[in-house]
Specification:
mainly alpha, 7 helices, about 10% strand, two-stranded antiparallel sheet, about 160 residues
Length: about 160
C-alpha cells in the first residue's frame, strides 16, 4: 500500500493515527511536511552518530554534558570509544564517569588494598593483624607516645620477618 502525502504528491513516509473525540483520524505526510508540522526534525543524522548517542544515553552521560579534561582535551566519549585516557589529569576531570566503571570492574572495591599471600593458613588474618598494628602505630605517633610507637614498630618488623 503506497500512500501519498496528504498535502502534496510525494510518497508519505510518516503515518499518524490520532483519536480525537472518539473518532480515528489518519494522517500521511512526506518528510518535508512532517518537518513543517514539527513532527520530526529535518536533519539527516548518520546512523553511527545515532548509535553513539544511544550508547551515551544508556551509559548515564548525555551528549550535551560530555566531561572534558582541561589538560589534554580528551572527552569522556572518546575514552568510551578508545578505552584509553589521554593523561593523568583525565582521572580527576572524568571522575564522575570513571568511578562507577572502576567499581564495576573491581567488584565494588574503590581502593587498592594489596595482595595476601596464599601460602600457609590464616594469611588473611595475618595481613589484617599487620594492618591493625600499622594503624595503631600511626595513632601512637600522632599522640606522641613514642615508646609505644617504638614497641609497635619492632613488633611489626618481627612479625613480618616471621611471615616472610
Amino acid at each position: 500500500m503506497k500512500c501519498k502525502c496528504d498535502k502534496c504528491d510525494q510518497p508519505a513516509t510518516h503515518h499518524m493515527v490520532e483519536i480525537s473525540g472518539g473518532k480515528k483520524v489518519e494522517r500521511h505526510l512526506c518528510d518535508a511536511h512532517a518537518a513543517e508540522e514539527g513532527l520530526v526534525k529535518a536533519v539527516n543524522t548518520p546512523i553511527n552518530q545515532l548509535l553513539t548517542n544511544l550508547v551515551k544515553l544508556h551509559s548515564g552521560v548525555s551528549p550535551q554534558e560530555d566531561m572534558v579534561c582541561e589538560h589534554c582535551g580528551m572527552t569522556f566519549s572518546q575514552f568510551r570509544e578508545q578505552r584509553l585516557l589521554g593523561c593523568p589529569n583525565c582521572y580527576r576531570a572524568m571522575e564522575a564517569g570513571l568511578g562507577p566503571l572502576l567499581e564495576q570492574a573491581h567488584g565494588g572495591a574503590t581502593h587498592h588494598v594489596g595482595k595476601v599471600p596464599r601460602r600457609g593458613g590464616g594469611a588473611e588474618e595475618r595481613q589484617n593483624l599487620i594492618l591493625r598494628m600499622r594503624k595503631r602505630l600511626e595513632e601512637a605517633v600522632g599522640e606522641e607516645d613514642y615508646e609505644l610507637a617504638a614497641r609497635l614498630r619492632d613488633e611489626i618488623r618481627r612479625f613480618e620477618e616471621h611471615v616472610s
